[in-house]
Design goal:
alpha/beta; 217 residues; 5-stranded parallel β-sheet
């Protein structure tokens, strides 16, 4: 059996998917089962209120360490709530310096999270893959919001230069089609958005944990 850990904020927790419709994490796990030819068991440690520093703190908890060590597939979503907080403050005070300082802090926190995960897994010397989720922009009309998101996603991609670390730039797929893929407030993927995210994650493949096999896109 393959264990799958989803850790992070509201994106990983499945917000935006309707009550009877699975979020992208569980959809992706089912797709992975078809390729890996084994059961994939999902553990989700995610809340919409988690900011990047909260997620880093979580990594010190025994339950999280145990889940991390046991999991061959790890998905990290961090930064969404940091961005929403920063955007809400920016709307009030229009302080660009503070707005972009929040980006620097968020990137630093995620860098620490990823390094911590890599350190944990290297101690075991076992196969794993880590997918870092980027962010889409719920405020496409705002130029500085767009800069924040693009900078964030470039940084996530820079951390995923080679396996077993991968990055998924959600903005790349949702930009210009937010109403199609997102909830009415544009903050989270809707049912179709969750399905699309699962497909894009599946297209990354599973070479880091499994012999290279073709993926049906």
């Amino acid at each position: 059996m393959m264990r799958y850990l989803a850790i992070g904020d509201g994106l990983c927790s499945g917000i935006g998917a309707s009550f009877l419709s699975p979020g992208f994490i569980h959809r992706h796990a089912r797709m992975a089962e078809e390729v890996l030819k084994e059961r994939v068991s999902v553990t989700s440690i995610a809340r919409s209120t988690y900011r990047s520093n909260d997620i880093y703190t979580l990594l010190e908890e025994k339950r999280v360490k145990d889940a991390m060590k046991d999991s061959g597939i790890i998905v990290l979503s961090a930064g969404h709530q940091d961005y929403i907080d920063a955007m809400n403050k920016y709307k009030e005070n229009k302080n660009e310096t503070e707005f972009f300082r929040s980006l620097k802090t968020c990137k630093s926190n995620i860098d620490d999270i990823v390094q911590k995960i890599k350190d944990m897994k290297s101690e075991q010397n076992d196969k794993y893959m880590l997918i870092i989720l980027g962010l889409h922009n719920p405020y496409p009309e705002d130029e500085n919001a767009e800069k924040w998101i693009k900078n964030f996603n470039r940084y996530m991609e820079s951390m995923a230069r080679k396996p077993p670390i991968y990055a998924l730039n959600i903005h790349q797929y949702f930009k210009g089609e937010e109403e199609k893929w997102c909830t009415r407030d544009l903050l989270y993927p809707n049912n179709d958005g969750h399905r699309e995210l699962a497909r894009k994650m599946h297209e990354i493949g599973y070479a880091a944990i499994h012999e290279e096999v073709p993926v049906n896109k």
